[in-house]
Write a structure and sequence with these properties.
With 377 residues, the chain is of the alpha/beta class. The chain folds into 3 domains: 19-84, Arc Repressor Mutant, subunit A (Orthogonal Bundle); 88-193 and 359-375, ATPase, nucleotide binding domain (Nucleotidyltransferase, domain 5, 2-Layer Sandwich), CATH 3.30.420.40; 203-353, Nucleotidyltransferase, domain 5 (2-Layer Sandwich), CATH 3.30.420.40. It contains 13 helices and 16 strands. It has helices spanning 19-31, 36-43, 47-59, 124-135, 170-178, 187-198, 257-261, 263-268, 276-284, 288-312, 325-329, 331-341, 359-375, and strands at 34-35, 63-70, 77-83, 89-95, 99-106, 111-118, 141-148, 151-153, 156-160, 165-168, 182-186, 207-212, 216-222, 225-226, 316-320, 351-353. The strands form 4 sheets. A 5-stranded mixed β-sheet has the order 6-5-4-7-11. It has a 5-stranded mixed β-sheet with strand order 14-13-12-15-16, sandwiched between helices. A 3-stranded antiparallel β-sheet has the order 1-3-2. β13 (216-222) and β14 (225-226) form a beta hairpin. α6 packs across α13 and α10 (288-312) runs parallel beside α12 (331-341). The longest helix has 25 residues, at 288-312. The two termini are 24 Å apart. Bound molecules: zinc ion. Residues 239, 249, 251, 253, 256, 258-259 line the site of zinc ion.
Length: 377
């Protein structure tokens, strides 16, 4: 990646790939470098087909023959195929109410550089102009990915109430403004898919993603694929009932898991209008009111995890988000909630708590652009 020097350069174009070539590239992106002898059976490709496909991918600059690895079975060195990460770069942008988080990654979704700037306005044309301005700083981008909280269908932001947007054709407008192929998706769905390709859930068949913070987000991987609803709505199971006498979530429910977990609801129940950090500190130091509120939220989180596991029997449950201090503060009670809700031995639940960094949202938006290029979707 290099900073833009010329006034306006042509963006690198993504090559046209056969389905087999896409599959090989995807396999290596998700599972890492492999010798040919391992790829062929995994993808059920004949050796001649695989040779042809890898030749195309090497010629296109997407793969490189790399270091050798001594195979224990044969004792012979075997050449590994690697994805050539630096061959293409992608810009990811995550929109929030007050800031624009961006990351440039290579083809393997490794972050090359990050941007964190205040948003200028919520008007679609201003947001498009701001993103185009960020994109114009780099002269070798292949694609753009943008994520936000809301309902997104085929590149159109159908509903993002917090921005006051309805039916904004964001992908088309960004392509017009930047000249880049652009993918737009719901932020939690993009994060779920990014973890499934490039993160803690790489290559698993089934996974539940739960993000906690200002809102509660949920995503599902089933049969190795991101679940998309029949109406383009993301899977939302964070409103399972925990206690009919609990707080209100804002969607007309009382005592659903979301109602306990959302940051503003936690803070609303505490005297003295503390910040989230102050509230966590109060709970940790054993202050009774804060301790009770965090324990109730922790229990609700456990019930949510337990029901998600009942529902899917997933290989992995990933938990992340800026509300993670809640888990750390009330861990024992989270596990009480899991035990009460889950119908089997809780040790079957592989709960993977991923440290949260806001830049991960931007990286997952770039990963969306990578996936879009690789799958042609
Ligand atoms: Zn609810």
């Amino acid at each position: 990646m290099s900073p833009r020097t010329a006034a306006r350069t042509t963006h690198p174009t993504w090559p046209v790939l056969s389905e087999a070539a896409r599959d090989v590239l995807m396999e290596l992106l998700v599972h890492g470098p492999m010798p040919r002898a391992e790829i062929a059976p995994r993808l059920r490709l004949s050796r001649p087909t695989l040779s042809r496909v890898t030749k195309t991918l090497v010629t296109a600059g997407l793969l490189v023959e790399g270091a050798t690895e001594l195979r224990s079975q044969t004792g012979r060195p075997s050449e590994l195929l690697h994805v050539h990460g630096e061959s293409h770069h992608f810009l990811g942008v995550k929109l929030t109410a007050d800031r624009l988080y961006a990351a440039v990654t290579d083809l393997t979704a490794a972050v090359v550089t990050s941007v964190d700037e205040p948003s200028r306005s919520k008007r679609p044309e201003d947001v498009v102009a701001h993103i185009a301005e960020v994109a114009a700083r780099y002269d070798d981008l292949t694609g753009l990915g943008v994520t936000l909280g809301g309902v997104v269908r085929d590149g159109v932001v159908a509903d993002a109430g917090w921005l006051g947007w309805a039916d904004v054709p964001l992908a088309a407008e960004l392509t017009a403004a930047t000249g880049l192929p652009t993918a737009v998706d719901n932020d939690v769905q993009a994060l779920t898919a990014a973890e499934h390709w490039f993160g803690a859930g790489a290559g698993v068949d089934s996974m539940v993603m739960i993000t906690i913070g200002a809102g509660v987000g949920t995503g599902l991987i089933v049969d190795g694929k991101l679940v998309r609803g029949a109406h383009g709505l993301p899977p939302r199971f964070s409103h399972v009932l925990v206690d009919p006498n609990g707080p209100e979530c804002g969607y007309g429910h009382r005592g659903c898991a979301s109602s306990y977990l959302m940051t503003h609801v936690i803070l609303r129940q505490l005297d003295g209008t503390p910040t989230y950090e102050e509230a966590v500190e109060r709970a940790r130091s054993g202050e009774p009111q804060a301790k009770r509120v965090f324990e109730e939220a922790g229990y609700a989180l456990g019930v949510l995890i337990g029901h998600a596991a009942n529902f899917l029997d997933p290989q992995k449950v990933l938990l992340t988000g800026d509300g993670l201090p809640l888990y750390e503060t009330a861990r024992d009670v989270v596990h009480d909630g899991i035990e009460d809700a889950y119908e089997d031995d809780p040790s079957l639940i592989d709960l993977d708590v991923q440290p949260f960094d806001f830049a991960e949202w931007a990286r997952s938006a770039a990963a969306l652009a990578v996936r879009s290029a690789v799958t042609g979707g």
